[in-house]
From TrEMBL:
Organism annotation: Methylobacterium indicum
Parts forming coiled coils: none
Top-level taxon of the source organism: Bacteria
NCBIfam families linked: rrf2_super
Keywords assigned by UniProt, alphabetized: DNA-binding
Identification of the protein by name: Rrf2 family transcriptional regulator
Keyword check for Phosphoprotein: no
Pfam families hit by this protein: Rrf2
Gene Ontology terms: cellular component: cytosol
Length: 150
């Protein structure tokens, strides 16, 4: 399950993706726009900065901005940076694999095989979705729901 840290981080990233090129925004503005506790968002943006997704600048004209264009940032990478592996169980993880101590035959474990399929489905979506595509989803959904009459 996506944690609040992951959810708030994605909301902040989508907000940053909507800024004009070269623009920066302060934490307080993002926090207020999305009803995120400012102190928590400070920590999240620090993690995103350390992972190379955002840049920050202090002082006048400072704030946060994306470190790369939104079309180059994959959502799966952001989620992993904030929440860790996508797999629901360590034995189904590609990046943080750890065998279960209570499993006698991992290759025949139906729970592991099911969770591996879940992990692969989640990764298939998140690793192929860019931040720009995610930012455009509400507009695409609204356009798809329009009905035209002639």
């Amino acid at each position: 399950m996506l944690t609040n840290k992951g959810k708030y981080g994605l909301k902040a990233m989508v907000h940053l993706a909507g800024l004009p090129p070269g623009a920066r925004i302060g934490v307080a503005e993002i926090a207020e726009a999305h009803r995120i506790p400012k102190k928590f968002l400070d920590a999240i943006l620090g993690d995103l900065r350390n992972a190379g997704f955002v840049h920050s600048k202090k002082g006048p004209g400072g704030g946060y901005a994306l470190a790369r264009p939104a079309e180059e940032i994959r959502i799966g990478h952001v989620v992993r940076a904030l929440d860790g592996p996508l797999a629901p169980l360590p034995c189904a993880s590609r990046t943080a694999y750890r065998p279960c101590e209570d499993c006698a035959d991992e290759a025949a474990c139906s729970v592991r095989l099911t969770m591996l399929a879940v992990r692969n489905s989640i990764a298939g979506i998140l690793d192929n979705l860019t931040l720009e595509q995610m930012r455009s989803l509400p507009q695409a959904e609204a356009e798809a729901s329009l009905t035209y009459h002639i």
